[in-house]
Description:
- It is a single chain.
- This protein has 193 residues and is α+β, with helices and mostly antiparallel strands.
- It has one domain.
- Helix content is 47%, strand content 18%.
- The chain has a 4-stranded antiparallel beta sheet with strand order 1-4-3-2.
- α1 runs antiparallel to α3 and α2 (29-79) crosses α5.
- The protein is globular.
- Heme C (HEC) binds next to α2, α4 and β4.
Amino acid sequence: MKSISINMLLTSVLAMSPLLVNADETLPMQDIQQARSLVKAFGSDLKSVLITTMKTAGPIKALEVCNTQAGPIAEKNSALSTWDIARTSLKVRNTSNAPDVWEATILRQFEIRKAAGENINTMEHSEVVQVGEKTVLRYMKAIPTGGLCLACHGSKLADDVSSKVNELYPNDQATGFKLGDIRGAFTLQKIKL
Ligand code: HEC
């Protein structure tokens, strides 16, 4: 019997998947480029605050800073553009970052694409989605789990880190990640005028 590779199998499953809405409609290149550069700016804002605080004040202080600053940093970056920008994940720390149905679908597709061998550093998806009367441009980019992330999202958190996480986020799901896992995604949307 001829064997079918896992990649071929996944590719055909993806092709047949009824999950994609308006998959034929992709974003104009100009919008994709805008979204990419916003993700870059937002991501480096977050990372520089995180790295500086981890270095100068340690993980407990960095947890507090993530808790109070992640939202305002997202808002600042959204305000600078026409896009709404946020982060989401299949396993969230802050429940207000929980994915909507479309985002959860794309996050699951990211996992399938990763399993099929795609590099998560460049993994993205964009789509034009119709919501009632509104046409919405949507863009997501995978966020890889790096070494720096494991102190707060890994499998073994230090006791003081773990209790601070539980204190701030009693419903936390965002641990148990390994290096190279997809931690979540940046998610951007804007209404097409
Ligand atoms: C000092 C602890 C700490 C470190 C280190 C850390 N995070 Fe987080 N992370 C948090 C906290 C706290 C939140 C919740 C922020 C909020 O309330 O919006 C969070 C939220 C997130 C979210 C949003 C989805 C969710 O779960 O709510 C993503 C995505 C994320 N982190 C990715 C990363 C990545 C990638 C790294 C490594 C580059 C990283 N984190 C490192 C503490 C940390």
